[in-house]
Write a structure and sequence with these properties.
By secondary structure, this protein is α/β, with parallel strands linked by helices. It is built from 15 helices and 8 strands. It starts with a helix and ends with a helix.
Length: 397
């Protein structure tokens, strides 16, 4: 009993870690459907439309069947033959091997392990030999869906963009290296959030981000008037080159963290109070005045912070080019950082990805789920925003 409960706990943990039941249900459903097709092929002795001397009958459509599993209900199509002789034993065997199949599929899809384990389990399920190529075909289909989503055309305008990156450990040539996972989010002209894409790159260099921005433009990205990011030098240079004329907002949270790192513990409450006056000002004029006052007060008490504010303080005021109703949500990269934290929660059980493709595969699959959830809710009321308003305020800034 203890071993059984432990196994159920493992499956539950994988569900929590890799996107929940929706992700697993799709993965398991595809595999079980593929096993049904393979079972019919074995029964008839031929593939669909194949003519040979050993063929024992012909396909005759499908009948629907719902299978209840630990990852939800699977909507399957059971093949039929013309003579009505085909009877699958898959469902009875599935119940006995379900837990092992779920775990093996997750390992195959996420960690990139050998397909031998999945092959052995599917053989136990349907009582016939399932080739490695058939199992690999499942991953290929899923990879094709991920690739199609990542390269989908962008038909709308996206006035607001948010960029950020995080890092994952990936094996390469016998060693473990850190790879950047670059993510782009757009706010459409209709006010919906959308994950525009994700990429794995060596670093956050200007070349890496430049390639990302070029790809987005080739897919149809247009109408960009405002961009939020941290101050990574490579990213900022790429933004300046690819989105000329757009307002750049340096993430205020990152900026405050940078300021706090330049002063001692005793000065931090003062720095926080003064920075709050700047970031929570209702107008650009008030924020500019609060920034000047902060510089003056910190020149002797925290000179390094004062120098940072003097040289780069204007970079956190770009948000005032937007309508006031948009300030709170568009002054930082917090929304994307929260998403990155969720990705980390789900990828940490992998620890080290076996290769870049397995890392990109999982990240993209999880972001596809997030994108589906976001598209059902308006994030910003964009009727409050107009291109002319942003351009005029940007010129004044």
């Amino acid at each position: 009993m203890a071993r059984k409960e432990q196994g159920i706990g493992i499956v539950s943990g994988w569900q929590d870690g890799f996107g929940g039941e929706d992700f697993l249900r799709d993965l398991v459903q595809r595999t079980v459907q593929q096993v049904l097709e393979a079972e019919m092929t074995s029964f008839l002795g031929a593939e669909s439309y194949q003519r040979n001397d050993v063929r024992r009958g012909w396909r005759n459509g499908f009948k629907p069947r719902t299978l209840k599993t630990r990852v939800g209900e699977l909507e399957l199509m059971v093949p039929k033959d013309r003579d009505g002789q085909f009877q699958t034993e898959l469902f009875e065997r599935y119940q006995r091997s379900e837990k092992a199949l779920v775990l093996a599929l997750l390992q195959m899809y996420v960690e990139g392990v050998s397909t031998r384990k999945v092959t052995a389990i599917t053989e136990a399920l349907c009582g016939l030999e399932v080739s490695k190529s058939q199992v690999s075909a499942l991953t290929a289909k899923l990879d094709a869906e991920v690739a199609e989503w990542r390269m989908r055309p962008l038909s709308e305008e996206y006035p607001y963009l948010i960029f950020d990156a995080r890092y994952e450990k990936v094996r390469r040539g016998g060693s473990v290296v850190s790879q950047g996972v670059l993510v782009a989010i757009g706010i459409s002209a209709a006010g919906y959030r959308e994950v525009l894409g994700c990429w794995v790159a060596e670093s956050e260099s200007e070349a890496s981000w430049g390639a990302v921005f070029l790809e987005l433009k080739q897919r149809g990205l247009r109408g960009v008037r405002y961009v939020v990011s941290d101050d990574h030098a490579g990213m900022v240079r790429a933004i300046e080159r690819h989105f000329q004329g757009a307002v750049w907002q340096r993430c205020q949270v990152h900026f405050v963290r940078n300021a706090l790192s330049l002063c001692g513990r005793q000065q931090r409450p003062l720095v926080l109070r003064l920075m709050k006056l700047v970031t929570e000002s209702a107008t650009r004029e008030a924020a500019t005045a609060a920034l000047a006052a902060a510089i003056a007060e910190l020149e002797k008490k925290a000179p390094k912070v004062a120098r940072l504010l003097e040289e780069h303080g204007e970079e956190i005021l770009g948000v005032y080019a937007l309508p006031e109703a948009h300030h709170k949500r568009m002054r930082t990269t917090n929304m994307l950082e929260r998403q990155n934290q969720e990705l980390k929660r789900r990828t940490r059980v992998v620890r080290v990805f076996p290769h870049e493709q397995s890392c990109l595969r999982l990240i993209a699959a999880l972001l596809m789920e997030t994108n589906q959830e976001w598209m059902g809710r308006i994030y910003l009321r964009m009727e409050e925003e107009s291109g002319a308003e942003i351009e005029s305020q940007a010129q004044a800034a």
